[in-house]
Amino acid sequence: MAANQTKTSYDLAVVGAGLSGLTMALAAAARGLSVALVDRVKLEKMALPTFDGRTTALNISSVALYRQLGVWSHLAAYAAPIEQIRITDNHAPQVIDFISREVPAVRDAGLAMGYIIENRHFRQVLQQQVLAEKRITVLPPAGLEALVQHDGQVMLTLTRLADGAAQPVSARLVVGADGRGSRTRALLGIATHDVDYRQSALTFPVRHAQPHGNVAAEIFTPHGPLATLPMVGQGKDNGHISSIVWTRPTKAANVLMAMDEALMLAVLEESCAGWLGGLELAANRSCYPLSLQVVDEYARGQVCLIADAAHGIHPIAGQGLNLGLQDVAGLDALIAEQLAVGLDIGSAEMLKRYQTQRRSQNRAMIAATHGLNALYGVRHPVVSAARRTGMAAVQGLTLLKHGFIKRAAGL
Ligand SMILES: Cc1cc2nc3c(=O)[nH]c(=O)nc-3n(C[C@H](O)[C@H](O)[C@H](O)COP(=O)(O)OP(=O)(O)OC[C@H]3O[C@@H](n4cnc5c(N)ncnc54)[C@H](O)[C@@H]3O)c2cc1C
Fold first, then answer.
1. I want to staple 146 with a disulfide (CB 3.0 to 4.6 A). Which of 124, 157, 171, 297 is the partner?
2. Which atom of ligand 1 lies at the shortest distance from residue 182's CA?
């Protein structure tokens, strides 16, 4: 819905229209709530291919959320299924293969282990759904400046991008989906715990000579993990285009960003050890510095944080947004309970429950991704040998692998 200049009071306001904020707005509107959605960047700009060159690996829990919201049918055309995950330790012969059709819980759900979708398509589809939803008002681009909680309402002061004018908005519940640099979080006075990994992730799509076979490969090189993720491709690209997420120490990543294209692809081919065959760059390279950022508090009063505003993690397992989408699903379920018994959706008690549930659920994945990056970052030959022995052992343990697949799929 176009911005409505007269209305200033809503059931719920979402600050940040990234992937998590768009999803939160759709979930709240589906519960019949009036929603204000604001971002300091124009939606159209955020859907440009140059704005976000990443892909997202969506797990089955996230797919379930989009099915519930009636959005999955629109996303599915852009989503490449992951039928197999193949993990290797550099060029060592040991391999761990996770094959989704071998796990009844995954196969019976009629789904793959996960799906890879380009963020530009993901954003476009969610934006179209948001703009078509009458209960959602997309405010003109504006930055959150201040918030005051008083008498069961949260008053937001927004500064409009176009003319610098202040735009007041009030809501019973405010959701901060404004990412790692969250202004909502800062205004609540919630501190973050940060770890700089001194690594950056290069990401870009490549066309390749060999078919990907819907296999997602994770290669743990001595310099950092390298993932190849199958993408949907049209025409001759079908089955022959993948997204690269290549983690290196930041200085090395900067060198790869600046490197001549042919040379960079030669280094990449060497790191892939022949997997996918000859490579060709399919779009520009993007680079993201990596850090861990977590909070102890997810809510204060009638304001709460979701997704990267509450937890930014290493992309090693492709779970960052998936955790954020589970925040949305968790909050949505609590809102539904409140509405069912006629209670306030902005109840501080409800948000305390949200915090307790999500903090404990997210902690396990935050610790796992942090630990995995540390484990595979160790170059000592003894550790490396132990890792490979461990990998050979895991490859033989069917039940353990099935459990891992279910966890990775979010089942
Ligand atoms: C290389 C890489 C690969 C990744 N791969 C995966 C993957 O495969 N699977 C996965 O699940 N996750 C992945 N992630 C993580 C995922 O990209 C993030 O978790 C996700 O993008 C976070 O979305 P968000 O909506 O929370 O935040 P953001 O995308 O940061 O959106 C925040 C929004 O808030 C707006 N905003 C900020 N401040 C204000 C303000 N003051 N006022 C108004 N608006 C404001 C911003 O403009 C922005 O649009 C990856 C991350 C990286 C770096």
1. 157
2. 38
What structural domains does the chain harbor? 9-72+119-193+291-372 (3.50.50.60), 80-114+196-290+377-409 (3.30.9.10)
- Pairing of the two strands 114-118 and 55-59: antiparallel
Q: What b-and-e string marks burial along 166-178, b requiring 16 or more CB atoms within 10 Å of the CB?
A: ebebbbbbbbbbb
CA of 104 from ligand 1 middle (Å) equals 33
14: its two tokens: 């979402």
Tell me the per-residue pLDDT of 352-396, one tens digit each, with 9 for 90 and over: 999 999 999 998 888 888 777 776 665 555 555 555 555 555 555
Q: In testing the pocket of ligand 1, which one of 26, 56, 127, 147 has its CB within 8 Å of the most ligand atoms? A: 56
CA angle 23, 28, 34 (to 5 degrees): 125
What tokens does 236 get?
A: 């001759």
pTM of the model: 0.92
Residue 45: which residues within 8 A CB-CB, separation 6 or more? 51
Ligand 1 atom 53: residue of nearest CA: 288
**CA–CA separation, 77 vs 65, rounded Å?**
17
Angle at 26 between CA 81 and CA 167, to 5 degrees: 135
**Tally of CA atoms within 13 A in the half-sphere of 219 that contains its CB:** 25
According to DSSP, residue 140 is labeled P
- Per-residue pLDDT tens over the stretch 197-227: 999 999 999 999 999 999 999 898 888 889 9
Name which of 389, 237, 375 is nearest 317 in CA terms.
375
Which residue's alpha carbon is nearest to atom 9 within ligand 1? 318
* Inter-CA distances, 186 with 170, 199, 296, 312, Å: 19, 25, 13, 15
Q: How far apart are alpha carbons 218 and 285 in whole angstroms? A: 19
CB 394 within 8 A of CB 401: yes
Q: For the segment 99-135, what is each residue's pLDDT rounded down to a tens digit? A: 766 767 667 777 788 999 999 999 999 999 999 999 9
